[in-house]
Design goal:
The structure is a homotrimer of 236-residue chains.
Chain A: H1 4-14, H2 19-28, E1 41-44, E2 54-65, E3 88-92, E4 100-102, H3 104-113, E5 117-120, E6 123-124, H4 127-132, E7 137-139, E8 141-142, E9 151-156, E10 160-166, E11 169-175, E12 180-184, E13 187-191, H5 196-218, H6 223-231
Parallel strand pairs in A: 2-3, 3-5, 4-6, 5-7, 6-8
Antiparallel strand pairs in A: 1-7, 2-9, 2-12, 10-11, 12-13
Helix pairs in contact in A: 1-5, 2-5, 5-6
GO molecular function, one term (chains A, B, C): 4-hydroxy-4-methyl-2-oxoglutarate aldolase activity
Binding site for Mg(2+) (chains A, B, C): 126
Binding site for substrate (chains A, B, C): 103-106, 125
Chain lengths: 236, 236, 236
């Protein structure tokens, strides 16, 4: 995990950038899939559109099936009250449920606690209420039925595993506590905390090159030429 | 099925509530999945947002593959003309087609007939036209190609089965004619008609407890405490 | 492929119609699935809503996995610069990747080149930027990570194959270069170029019949009667 000082510097440095910019940096650093978490999209403050963005370290919560109650650890009190300020709440429910593990009251509490936003590898509910309170929520989909009947919050601050299937292939991602989440209308990216400072170092060059390419293309130059000129000269 | 008088009372009583409230009541009544029908989302009057809501008894229509023509029953005349007023048209096409079994003309007819809205366990078409006529439609997705080439309306007023796969698990739901449908931006819930009066009885208490929790949380109390206070005292 | 004169006439003739109208014509011509390409939806200029529509011949680009580099053909220079004016760029990346093979700079270039719009059998990125430049993009979903790490543009102007699974059934579609693409809020339809003139011939009759049906239904007639009157008399 990053020290509080480094973390603050990293988050501040990343705020001007988009999830795509950070994915470009992670790709250049050979990080698998550029850190993209497929299947999770913006549901609030708008559905898949608008300029909302969140940047912050992940506070992970791992849920387990109710069948594991008594065998697996269980969080004492309500997990939501333990969310640290300036963090992104990152919820990992079991994949094979259709319950919505997150709703309006949770967002109201997070706002009070000074958190940054919510990412759910599952379903949210109270979608309109989330939007009315302007709280950023990224999720796989909506639902109506609370999670309690299917699963329980078992552990906080542990690594969580996500799976997504596309074209018959299974994509796996591990989110560690303190990994930096950046999420916007294009999706959710997780920066492993060990790569965060490196990302901060190279992302400005990449974005500068892209902006130069875009300007040239708008001026009528070919992409072939402008990529050679601006991306070809990158030193990272 | 409920008598017309009871039905009217139930629908009127449920109108102020959200699909999530009803799912909470059904969960408390031990009804599987809180009645949620996963995979079907609001497409009209807006796409996955806005305050539109429908409440009413299901008028089911079961479609079959064209290969079954001649062997399976077939509805005489056009099924849409037989939709009773104050009902939600609930269409169940075969799962393994990509055709859109429902379009603009159907909604125009339903409006005239005094129906309440449309739920399709499949695809709709004429999405913009549905929105322009402010007709509520919930569906799995959009499409361009009419259903006639793939399937036909075989029976009305019969039980229909829905399947949805999530995280490798198959979720099955049966909708019986007269089950009460409540659908909004969070999704679609089906109340078995035998549980409808019980839902009406307990949903106000649950919502009152939730509102008290939300108020407390907005005032800065922890969720742990406020849940203990308000949800812990519920008598249902 | 159609001659430039015929192509121009076909595209002009189709512009007033919707993807659904064209799918109706293709269904009547016994073309499988009415030409619908399931799973690809409008992402820009708006997400799944609004009146945007594109009509034009497909300029196909087939991507291959990076593992095939050196064995498979590779396009020299950047493929985007070779997109012909008045065409729809049709990108076919491998199905089993989560990378976004298309972004803002590509749209800026296409606008300059006088193309018509973009269809991606995969993910786009820079969703908001696409909307700001009012560029029409249809895709399977959004993403953050550029395609270069997973695949490369291998061939242009070749047949491309799409797969989509629904209800356990695999739907396959082949898009040939020069097939006419028509796409709007209901989805994407591909007209095989050999059927394009036939579609132009019959689509006005179908739409006229539908408009007559809609008018009658709004006037209170049954769908049974109005379909018999207007659709039953069609000569195509």
């Amino acid at each position: 995990m990053l020290s509080p000082q480094v973390l603050k510097r990293v988050v501040t440095a990343l705020k001007p950038y988009a999830s795509c910019d950070v994915a470009d940096a992670l790709t250049r650093l050979k990080h698998k899939g550029g850190g993209f978490l497929p299947g999770i999209v913006m549901h609030s403050p708008q559905y898949q559109e608008g300029d909302a963005k969140i940047v912050g370290p992940a506070h992970t919560v791992k849920f387990r099936h109710n069948a594991d109650k008594g065998f697996a650890p269980q969080i004492e009190g309500h997990y939501i009250d333990k969310t640290p300020s300036d963090h992104v709440l990152f919820l990992a429910p079991p994949a094979n449920i259709t319950n919505a593990v997150y709703g309006e009251i949770m967002s109201a509490r997070l706002q009070r606690l000074g958190a940054v936003g919510t990412v759910i590898a599952g379903r949210l509910r109270d979608a309109n209420e989330q939007r009315q309170m302007n709280w950023p929520v990224f999720a796989r989909g909506v639902g109506t039925t609370a999670g309690g009947d299917a699963c329980f919050p078992s552990e906080m601050g542990v690594a969580v595993e996500l799976e997504h299937t596309e074209g018959g292939k299974v994509f796996k991602n591990t989110i560690n506590p303190g990994d930096i989440i950046i999420a916007d209308a294009n999706g959710v990216v997780a920066i492993p905390h060990g790569l965060a400072e490196k990302v901060v170092e190279i992302v400005p060059q990449l974005v500068k090159a892209d902006q130069a390419c875009l300007k040239d293309v708008l001026d009528g130059r070919s992409v072939t030429e402008t990529f050679k000129d601006h991306r070809g000269r990158l030193q990272c």
